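Quick illustration, no need to memorize.
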Amino acid sequence: MKEQGQKNINELTEIEKASAVITVELVEYLPNAVVIKTILRKSTGNITVMSVDSGEGLTEKTTPFDTYVQVIDGQADVIISGVSNLLKMGQSIVIPAHAPNLVKPNGRFKMVLTVIKSGYE
């Protein structure tokens, strides 16, 4: 449940193709907010970058697709089927399809999420 004043900002505009970017700078930290920016969205999957301010949280979920999580600033616990994995900046993990998972912030952090949809019916 969101606390009063918490914001979830979702920017659906893709980044410009064929232009170099600094991934960690694509989203800023905003007070009491989770900021999500779409890098690429296709029917076969998508790539997003997200910033999560200190004290904010994400809800547990299960998706029918494999998801690659890469922490690009700070750190977070990625809990997959009840097993906790502490990821620090530069580390990544694949969340298997259909596995209950929770990304639990350990202070503010940023991550890249890549969802692969091809190969699933």
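The longest strand covers residues 33-42.
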